[in-house]
Structure formats: C-alpha cells, structure tokens
C-alpha cells in the first residue's frame, strides 16, 4: 500500500470503518458456468428482486435470472434467457421496472425481456422487443436514469443508438463521434448528458439530443489499455485507466473544462481493467478490477486531495465480474451501504459492505433520500427536450415502500403494449369516442395487439430456426 494513502486514512469520515464481508457459502449461488467471453463488462446485473448473470451457452448467448433468495446450488437444467444467437456481452436492469432487463450481444441486436414476477419456470426465448440497428456486436446497454423506456446501446461499429423501447424505434444515432471502440458510456444524474471513454484515449461529454460533443479530453490516461469514465452527482467526471508505464490510475475532472484533472492518483501495476461503481448518496466510488481479488473504495469530497482512499476489501479468489445492488435493495437495519455480487469461475458470491453502528435506530446520515423506481419523465418528453432529476424516496421504511412502488410501476409499464406506435395512432380516436364504445375499442385493440405480438414472435422464432438450419446445411455441404 502506498504511504500517501495511509496518511490520508486519518481524515475524519463516517465511512472510514466501512466493513466488507463475504456471505456464508450457503448464501452463494453455486455451480454457475460464468461466461468466458473476452469483453470487459461486469457480466452481472442486480436489482431488489433478481440477480442476472451472463453464462456460457452452446449455440448462442444466454444469461441466468435468479430470484435473490434462490441461493445454493443451481441446477444445470435451470431455465435461462436464451434468445440471442451470439454470446451476450452486457445486461442491464431497467431502473423503473424490476421485471425488465435489456441485453446486448455479438449477434448485433439488443433485446428487452420481461421476467415473470416469481422468476423463470421455463426458458425464455421470446423478448418483448428486438432492437436492430447496429452492424457489429453490441457491447454496452444502459437505461436512462430518469426517463421511462429510454435505452442506450453502444456497439463495436463505434456508434451509440438511443431507443424508445415502447415503440421499438431508434430515435438518436451518434455515429461520427467515435473513431474507435467505445469502452464505456455513462449517463449524467438527470440523463441530459453522456460521458464516454474510447479506444482513441479520449473522454467525451456529449449532449445526445443536440447530437454534439460538449467537451472532450485527449489522452485522459496515456496508457493503451481500456479506460472507464462515469458521471458523478455533482457533474464532475471520474475516470480509471492506465499510465504510459502501465500503472493503473484514477482521475477526477470538471465536466465543463477538462484541460487539467482536479486530481490524478497512481494505484498499482496490475493489468485488470478497473470497473467503477458509484454511490451518489454517499459519494463513494468502489473500484473492482477484473481478475483482482479486491474491492477498493474511495470517498470523493470538495477538499484536497478530493479522492480519499478509505479501505480495501480483499479475498483469495479473483473476480470474473461484479454486480452492484441499487440502494433500495439494501438492508438498512444492518447499516448496509453497498452490496456486490462477485462472480467466480463457477459461482456468484454476495459481498456486503456495512458501517458498524451500535444504535438500532434508522441511520439517516448513511441513508439520505435515494433514487426510487418511479420515472420522472416519459420517453416522448425526454426526446422532446425535457429534463427531470431522479424522484427520491426515503429508505426509512426499508424494503416495504419499494415493493408498493414496484407494483405501480409494473402496472403502468408500456412494454406490455408493444408495438406502441399502433396504440398511439388509435389514441386520439379513443379520446373522442363515447365512453362505452371507447372501452370496447380498447378491448379490441388489446386483443389485436396481443395477436399481433404472438404472430410477430412466432415469425422471429421461425426466422431463427431457418437461419440455424441453413447454417447446419451449409456445414454438411462442406
């Protein structure tokens, strides 16, 4: 450990004694064949209901979706989400609906899935919507933090597409901004800006609706290995990367002027890419290196040196990937401030971060109001230029309040009425129609939409089968 870190630990902070602990063996998820794809995503996504893990799959791509309480050994025959024809590279849970997850794959598509309330009982191969627009593999998917049904995808064709999932349309295409592979994309707190890290060593801040680069920094980190860049709650940007001497670095930047960093720190000479996970409520950044066996955490403040080393949680086993639980999924009674889902080669192990406190009362200094599951905007409003910060909820009532909110969000979810374009065409007529006929028309419309959806899904499945059979015929012919 480097001496300036040790000196800094003396600083007063309520997070100085954050205590990390891996759960007992019987609370892990065992016998999971974690994906071996060489791609630097986290391979794991978590929300208050489920943990999703990208796994090895023959003849396509698949991921597991397990209810949080389904610990222990996972049967090899456990149903998977398996609609992609190539390996899955990234997954992301919708922040506004705990039953909806998006996946990006080597087959150049993005798929959005609706998971049953109690988890999967049979394999899920029919997505709610397939988003096609990339010409190369899709390595990043990320939901908008405050607008419902807005999804971003970034592919190895060096373009970023922002979709309206409710209509299945690509609304914004940022195609000439990145000359090389995009390593990471991060939304700002209210989702009006994007921050990207690219293989050309540039970090860019982009206004996606104006389709313009607001500011950029060349050689944010000099090394050739992958960088990561994330937005912080105050609008600053936190980056991880490598120096010219291949040392791992972290840096903090002002997003409106990236000429010089606010601070840069060298860490070590390991070659694993550092995945940053950020908690806007406590201003703590957790750094999980791929292939490392540790999680380092830092507190970001307004006083020098700005990024303060707190501590390191270490285990013997290296991590293949990492999932990070949203704040509303934590146990506030145990003063839990973060929970990670660490992927080993054959299992997923939850790691709990707590601040030890003697009092049984709700610790409101550890749990300021946090982003809840209700969206601030509809997709159409955001694409029209409106902004909205996250709708905050109190964690004082623990998990109960979140469950109530979830039900409300699920009921309103427009993913159920795909394709929404047709519904939109009908809605003005419905408004003018008398009340009774309006109800009848809605019922008819629902019926037609359901039939349309099942036919459409059947056609997609048949297309896939034909494609597979053609491949097999081609192999036999060879």
Automatic annotation (TrEMBL):
PROSITE patterns: WD_REPEATS_1 (PS00678), WD_REPEATS_2 (PS50082), WD_REPEATS_REGION (PS50294). It comes from the Eukaryota. One of its GO terms (biological process) is actin filament organization. Residues 438-472 form a coiled coil. WD repeats lie at residues 81-115, 131-173, 175-216. Keywords: Actin-binding, Coiled coil, Cytoplasm, Cytoskeleton, Phosphoprotein, Repeat, WD repeat. Residues 8-72 form the DUF1899 domain. One of its GO terms (cellular component) is stress fiber. The keyword Cytoplasm applies. Forms homooligomers, but does not form complexes with the other coronins. Interacts with Arp2/3 complex components, including ACTR2, ARPC1B and ARPC2. Binds actin. Belongs to the WD repeat coronin family. PANTHER family: CORONIN, CORONIN-1B. Regulates leading edge dynamics and cell motility in fibroblasts. May be involved in cytokinesis and signal transduction. This is Coronin. The lineage of its organism: Eukaryota, Metazoa, Chordata, Craniata, Vertebrata.
């Amino acid at each position: 450990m480097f001496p300036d870190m040790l000196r800094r630990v003396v600083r007063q902070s309520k997070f100085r004694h954050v205590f990390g602990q891996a759960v007992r063996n019987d609370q892990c998820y065992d016998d999971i064949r974690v994906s071996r794809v060489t791609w630097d995503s986290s391979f794991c996504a978590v929300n208050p209901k489920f943990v999703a893990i990208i796994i090895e799959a023959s003849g396509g791509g698949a991921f597991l979706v397990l209810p949080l309480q389904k610990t222990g050994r996972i049967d090899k025959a456990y149903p998977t989400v398996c609609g992609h024809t190539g390996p899955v590279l990234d997954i992301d849970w919708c922040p506004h609906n705990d039953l909806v997850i998006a996946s990006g794959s080597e087959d150049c598509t993005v798929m959005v899935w609706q998971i049953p309330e109690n988890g999967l009982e049979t394999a899920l191969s029919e997505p709610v919507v397939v988003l096609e627009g990339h010409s190369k593999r899709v390595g990043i998917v990320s939901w908008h933090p405050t607008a419902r049904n807005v999804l971003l995808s970034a592919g190895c064709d060096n373009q970023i597409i922002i979709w309206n999932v409710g209509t299945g349309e690509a609304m914004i295409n940022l195609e000439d901004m990145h000359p090389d592979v995009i390593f990471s994309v991060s939304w700002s707190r209210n989702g009006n800006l994007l921050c990207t890290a690219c293989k050309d060593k540039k970090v860019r801040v982009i206004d996606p609706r104006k389709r313009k680069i607001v500011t950029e920094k060349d050689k944010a980190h000099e090394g050739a290995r992958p960088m990561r860049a994330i937005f912080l709650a105050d609008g600053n940007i936190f980056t991880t990367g490598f120096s010219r001497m291949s040392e791992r670095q972290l840096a903090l930047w002002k997003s409106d002027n990236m000429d010089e960093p606010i601070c840069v720190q060298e860490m070590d000479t390991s070659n694993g890419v550092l995945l940053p996970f950020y908690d806007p409520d406590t201003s703590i950044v957790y750094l999980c290196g791929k292939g490392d066996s540790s999680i380092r955490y830092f507190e970001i403040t307004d006083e020098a040196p700005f990024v303060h080393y707190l501590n390191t949680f270490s285990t013997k086993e290296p991590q293949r990937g990492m999932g990070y639980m949203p704040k509303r999924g934590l146990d506030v009674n145990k003063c839990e401030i973060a929970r990670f889902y660490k992927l080993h080669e054959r299992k997923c192990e939850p790691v709990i971060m707590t601040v030890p406190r003697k009092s049984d009362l709700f610790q409101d200094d550890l749990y300021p109001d946090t982003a809840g599951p209700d969206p601030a905007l509809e997709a159409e409003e955001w694409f029209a230029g409106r902004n909205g910060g996250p709708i905050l909820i109190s964690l004082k009532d623990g998990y109960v309040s979140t469950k109530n909110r979830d039900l409300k969000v699920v009921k309103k979810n427009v993913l159920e009425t795909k394709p929404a374009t047709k519904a939109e065409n009908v809605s003005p007529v419905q408004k003018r129609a008398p009340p009774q006929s309006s109800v009848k028309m809605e019922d008819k419309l629902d019926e037609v939409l359901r039939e349309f959806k099942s036919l459409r899904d059947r056609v997609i499945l048949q297309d896939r089968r034909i494609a597979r059979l053609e491949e097999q015929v081609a192999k036999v012919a060879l």
